[in-house]
């Protein structure tokens, strides 16, 4: 702990010393400014600017683009005459000469440029230049969902399938550059809604309520070190324009139905937004078949299990929220948000089973045919409240912020299973349990940023986060003697887990040697743990310290080419679903449980990236990456000839739990981009290739190596000004781990027609239209275990979506000024 603190202090000293020496006067000049719309005063993002030297015979030119605040900058210019040309879709071309010579005494020059729209007003809607659907930023990729017109009828899961660096499997599990350990945030804040079932949580967020998705595969020190794969931040829609407005969105389909309402109101310096949505995934029947051969390494007995049947699965959710944003003064802002989320699923199954045991000589010990019925239910209710205060100072980018978060989740898992004899249809075995749980999260953070020089910004902060997990289970097992379910005192339990994380960080953004743009920092986190389980007493989970350095070094060439290197230290702390000792016996031959003693996963990630923008909506992004996790966390399956739960013994059992594996090395490449063909077609590919090497402490096999690849392509065709068509295809190879999970592919076709001069739209989408089922074949290999599972999952669907915007917005001059970041005062 002391060494880590000294290392953090040393880093601060080095950064401050380096920057104190950077104040040497130079003969160059920087040219910066702000680009806004002439009519509304709103900033214009992603506009292309070309600056050319006007001297006779000069060939020098440099390109830049505006950020979200409409800001642009040209650094380290030789003092001379220049001509600036600006082109932006929907606006008249801008051209102006600037004399940036020795007559300017300062080392920088700032101008406020206004562009006039080349597009006419349509009633109360003003059409202005728009952002690209994909934006490459120094520390993240931003996918602007509101520009993805064909995703509006789906959920967050559907949108994530199209985001660069991200892949989603058939069950809705998300990976970032091949790593499933992803930290999900809502509007930059954590929520307990992701603690028990990430896939269910993502299915509960409609795409129509998402403004953008930010992907940070190598986050900086400012962010929590949680998530060895990185961070995905889901930014919900919010409108700060004066007036009242809203959006109604409704989808009806053969698999998914949802509806949502977004409302925004702003008067003077106070804005209020609210939302409500509900969704339902209709009941679908999945067909499954399992063949398993097992071997008792001690006694030599052999086991054979065959299961065939079906399960009916359905999902439902609703979300509501209210937010308030108050500009107290020109430099003080307070915001408050409240939200409640509820989601759940139900799965009813009916299976025929054949279970046989033979001794080492081949003689049959037992031979049994029976039927198993199962019913599982899961629901989660989550309440979030957050409050933020921000104070801006006279210096540009000098800011103090205080943030408080409370997230409280209540979840409930239930199962009921019974096994019946085929001969007389009588129940001979079964169990049932209800597992209520609570997850309480509190967080308090203070952050401060200030410019040391005009090219060096320091950010620092401290944070305290506490989380408490409570889980209880009342278990009843079937008694043939009384032919009923009887309370089982030995399987019933209660547990509690408390964790505190103390964190501090410092980060600097600066220019090194006039060539490299650097974001470097370090984060120190100290974690304390306290756990109690009624069946085993107090658990011995040690406290631990993590020193997490990170760095992003980039260089921008001409024509918006960027070469970038990044390194980050990350960890994955076990979540509620990992720690919960609840034993799910819905299938007594395939038991799933948590692991209260699991330790955090530690990851070190290296990336080398290249990106280039071509105009308004053309870009390419290439990432070479290497990740080393040690220890690593994975779901691990162990075969038991007999498995004791309380005073009940189950035979021929697979037990799956999350466990610490020795280490994993993963290296590969990600290729993504966006390309326009003519004025009608836009193609966005996303390809991943990586090799995974796992050292397995369970030593069967001791080392596992497998090559994996994933890819998708999204193509849009702008049929007319109001009609767009889209084709999306997705393929994912299997994952090699204790066998191989089967690969799968999917495809969809969508069209969307704008109505009422852009106020409304009508869309139609079809998924896997030419096949009722998506077949996935999985093999499982472990010590004494060889199994094959075939799933036929109903994936075909057709849906229709309607969206309508209403209300009237007003842009006042003073509001436009508030939305526009002020240039620095020299």
What report would you give on this structure?
The chain is built from five helices and 44 strands. The protein is mainly beta and 826 residues long. It has a 22-stranded antiparallel β-barrel. A hairpin with a 3-residue loop joins strand 26 and strand 27. 35% of the residues are buried. The N terminus and C terminus are likely disordered.
What average pLDDT do the residues reach? 86
The count of β-strands is: 44
- Cα(first) to Cα(last) distance is 43 Å
Tell me which oligomeric state these chains represent: single chain
Basic shape: globular
Output the structural class. Answer: mainly beta
Largest sheet entry: 22 strands, antiparallel, barrel
How large a portion of the residues is in β-strands, by DSSP E? over 45%
Helix content: under 10%
What's the alpha carbon Rg, rounded to whole Å? Answer: 29 Å
**Weakly predicted, low-confidence segments:** 1-26, 119-129, 811-826
Number of DSSP helical runs: 5
Describe how the helices and strands are arranged.
Blueprint: H1 2-20, E1 29-37, E2 48-53, E3 61-65, E4 71-77, E5 80-87, E6 94-100, E7 108-115, E8 134-137, E9 140-144, H2 156-160, E10 166-168, E11 174-176, E12 182-186, H3 198-203, E13 210-216, E14 230-236, E15 242-253, E16 256-267, E17 270-295, E18 302-327, E19 332-358, E20 364-392, E21 399-421, E22 427-453, E23 456-479, E24 484-487, E25 493-512, E26 516-533, E27 537-539, E28 544-557, E29 561-572, H4 576-579, E30 590-592, E31 601-613, E32 619-629, E33 632-645, E34 648-661, E35 663-677, E36 681-695, E37 703-718, E38 723-732, E39 739-740, E40 744-755, E41 760-767, E42 773-782, E43 785-794, E44 797-810, H5 813-819
Parallel strand pairs: 1-7, 12-14, 30-34
Antiparallel strand pairs: 1-4, 2-3, 2-5, 5-6, 8-9, 9-13, 10-11, 13-14, 15-16, 15-44, 16-17, 17-18, 17-43, 18-19, 19-20, 20-21, 21-22, 22-23, 23-24, 23-25, 25-26, 26-27, 26-28, 28-29, 29-31, 31-32, 32-35, 33-34, 35-36, 36-37, 37-38, 38-40, 39-42, 40-41, 41-44, 42-43
């Amino acid at each position: 702990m002391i060494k880590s603190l000294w290392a953090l202090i040393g880093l601060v000293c080095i950064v401050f010393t380096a920057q104190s020496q950077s104040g040497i006067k130079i003969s160059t000049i920087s040219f910066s400014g702000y680009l806004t719309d002439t009519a509304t005063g709103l900033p214009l993002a992603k506009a292309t600017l070309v600056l050319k030297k006007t001297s006779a015979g000069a060939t020098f030119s440099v390109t830049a683009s505006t950020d979200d605040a409409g800001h642009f900058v040209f650094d380290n210019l030789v003092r001379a005459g220049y001509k600036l040309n600006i082109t932006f879709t929907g606006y008249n071309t801008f051209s102006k000469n600037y004399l940036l010579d020795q007559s300017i005494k300062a080392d920088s020059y700032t101008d406020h440029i206004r562009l006039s729209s080349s597009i006419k007003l349509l009633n109360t809607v003003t059409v202005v230049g728009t952002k690209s659907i994909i934006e490459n930023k120094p520390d993240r990729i931003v996918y602007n969902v509101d520009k993805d017109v064909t995703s509006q009828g789906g959920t967050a899961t559907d949108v994530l399938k199209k985001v660069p660096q991200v892949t989603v499997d058939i069950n809705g599990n998300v990976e970032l550059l091949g790593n499933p350990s992803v930290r999900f945030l809502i509007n930059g804040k954590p929520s307990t809604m992701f603690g028990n079932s990430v896939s269910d949580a993502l299915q509960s967020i409609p795409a129509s309520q998402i403004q953008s998705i930010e992907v940070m595969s190598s986050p900086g020190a400012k962010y929590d070190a949680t998530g060895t794969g990185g961070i995905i931040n889901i930014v919900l829609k919010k409108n700060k324009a004066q007036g009242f407005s809203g959006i109604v969105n409704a989808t009806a389909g053969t698999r998914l139905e949802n509806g949502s309402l977004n409302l925004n109101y702003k008067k003077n310096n106070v804005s209020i937004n609210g939302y409500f949505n509900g969704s339902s995934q209709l009941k679908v029947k999945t067909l499954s078949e399992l063949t398993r051969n097992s071997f008792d390494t001690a006694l030599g007995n052999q086991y054979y299990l065959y299961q065939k049947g079906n399960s009916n699965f359905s999902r439902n959710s609703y979300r509501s929220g209210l937010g308030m944003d108050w500009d107290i003064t020109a430099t003080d802002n307070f915001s408050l948000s409240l939200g409640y989320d509820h989601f759940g699923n139900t799965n009813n199954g009916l299976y025929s089973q054949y279970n046989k045991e033979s001794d080492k000589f081949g003689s049959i010990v037992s031979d049994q045919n029976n039927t198993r019925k199962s019913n599982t239910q899961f629901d989660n209710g989550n309440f979030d409240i957050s409050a933020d205060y921000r104070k801006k100072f006279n210096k540009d980018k000098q800011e103090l912020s205080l943030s408080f978060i409370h997230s409280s989740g209540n979840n409930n898992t239930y199962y009921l299973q019974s096994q019946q004899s085929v001969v007389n249809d009588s129940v001979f075995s079964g169990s049932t349990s209800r597992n209520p749980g609570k997850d309480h999260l509190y967080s308090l953070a203070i952050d401060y940023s200030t410019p040391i020089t005009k090219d060096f910004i320091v950010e620092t902060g401290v944070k305290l986060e506490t989380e408490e997990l409570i889980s209880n289970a009342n278990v009843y097992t079937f008694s043939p003697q009384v032919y009923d379910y009887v309370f089982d005192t030995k399987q019933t339990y209660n547990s509690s887990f408390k964790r505190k994380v103390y964190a501090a960080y410092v980060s600097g953004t600066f220019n090194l040697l006039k060539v490299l743009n650097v974001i470097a920092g370090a984060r120190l986190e100290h974690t304390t743990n306290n756990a109690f389980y009624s069946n085993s007493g107090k658990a011995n989970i040690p406290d631990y310290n993590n020193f997490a350095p990170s760095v992003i070094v980039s260089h921008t060439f001409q024509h918006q080419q960027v070469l970038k290197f990044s390194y980050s230290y990350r960890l994955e702390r076990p979540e509620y679903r990992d720690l919960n000792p609840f034993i799910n016996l819905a299938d007594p031959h395939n038991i799933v449980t948590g692991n209260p003693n699991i330790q955090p996963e530690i990851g070190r990630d290296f990336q080398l990236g290249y990106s280039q923008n071509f105009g308004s909506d053309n870009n390419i992004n290439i990432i070479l990456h290497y990740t080393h996790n040690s220890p690593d966390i994975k779901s691990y399956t162990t075969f038991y000839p007999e498995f004791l739960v309380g005073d009940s013994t189950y035979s021929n059992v697979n037990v799956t739990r999350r466990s610490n594996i020795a280490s994993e090395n993963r290296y590969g490449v990600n290729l993504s981009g966006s390309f326009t063909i003519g004025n009608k077609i836009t193609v966005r590919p996303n390809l991943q290739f990586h090799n995974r090497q796992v050292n397995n402490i369970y030593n069967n096999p001791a080392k596992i190596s497998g090559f994996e690849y994933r890819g998708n392509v999204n193509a849009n065709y702008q049929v007319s000004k109001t009609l767009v068509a889209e084709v999306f295809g997705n393929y994912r190879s299997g994952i090699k781990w204790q066998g191989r999970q089967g690969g799968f592919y999917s495809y969809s076709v969508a069209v969307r027609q704008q109505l009422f001069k852009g106020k409304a739209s009508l869309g139609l989408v079809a998924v896997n239209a030419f096949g009722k089922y998506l077949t996935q074949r999985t093999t499982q290999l472990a010590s004494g275990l060889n199994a094959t599972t075939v799933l036929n999952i109903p994936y075909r669907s057709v849906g229709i979506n309607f969206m309508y915007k209403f209300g009237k917005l007003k842009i006042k001059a003073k509001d436009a000024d508030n939305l526009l970041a002020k240039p620095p005062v020299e």
